Amino acid sequence: MDRLLNRIRANAWGSLTAIPELLGVAPTGEPQAELWMGAHPGAPSEVDRGSGARSLVELIAADPAGELGPDTAARFGPRLPFLLKVLAAEEPLSLQVHPDAVQARQGFAEEEARGVPIDAPHRNYRDSSHKPEMICALGDFEGLVGYREIAETLKLLDALDVPELAPFARALRNPDEEAALRAATTHVLMLPERLRTTVVDAVAAACRRLAANGSPYAEACAAVAGLAERHPGDPGVAVALLLNHIRLREGEAVFLAAGMPHSYLHGVVVEILANSDNVLRCGLTDKHIDVGELLRIMAFRAGPVEILGPEPSAAHPGEEVYTTPVADFRLSRLPAGPGRGPHFLDTAGPQILLCVRGSATVRQEREPGGAAGTTLDLARGRSVYIRAGEPRVAVTVDGADGLVFRATVPCR
Questions:
Q1: pTM over 0.90
Q2: 281 given a catalytic annotation
Q3: What distance in Å separates the CA atoms of residue 247 and residue 307, rounded to the nearest whole number?
């Protein structure tokens, strides 16, 4: 087992205080957006096995089967298949989508062939992996996720009564759902520069009116009006009208499949995703937007958002699992509780444990008569990496509401 030395990623939308508070350190005065735990080359965690700090990327590349286990290494190659984060949004993130596996491989290969530098601002694909992800709220969270059912969006547009959105509404009346969403999204993103401010200003004014009069769409409209204030003239504001506005409470989660448009507006979450940093943006940002590539990978499917809760694990009593349909990651919680003993975990694959409340003790259990196993104390905000094949691990979570998140790979 190894304590992780993790990096914090700065971004203008990040919170000044949330991540420092989690770690028990003083704020720096700068926004701190993401705490990364894992082995992505962009911000890899480090471990020290007695000879100085080494990148987790290097350790895994040097012994993939030993670190990941033979099965995980065979399925995913010499790389940790998941990335764990704490994401703290004080301001909205860009409106964005992520590619599926085929799109990511093709897009990465094409940009490599064209010689686009990996750190170029206009680069779309920084690696060849897909990027499904799941977020689990650590408190109240607000976001925009996936296309709302078209019938509901048309009701919203009728209530807004914005003449400038008439072509937008006409596109949505196509009985072919995919064609309707594609046409409406394309119409907005391709608006001539001279019309963008006019349209966005009209949307903002109408949204402020509905937000103030008790409309059923008041919360969604307040969110869109806020986006317009932060991003005047940005066509992503109008795209946001098409999306589900969601609020999560502590412990609730949402899975985001490839191609699903989304923007995280405010709150702190634990996020787990395939080990990728591929993002295609469609608004609410001053970063590069490739409209053609975006429309190629976006999934034009509408429907309500499924809010996930933790479910009891069949394999490990006391563990609570968030079920997802992907092979790259598995996220669960290990809560404290009256009279609850240690959580015993299998170590068939690699895993990361993150303490978000209280504290924990992580202990390797050796066979009787063997050498004593390693024991690590895990304070709030700290994390540990456990390579595959280690002796059985026991996790004791302390504190009235102590909580540890466990990220690993689903067993086959």
A1: yes
A2: yes
A3: 10
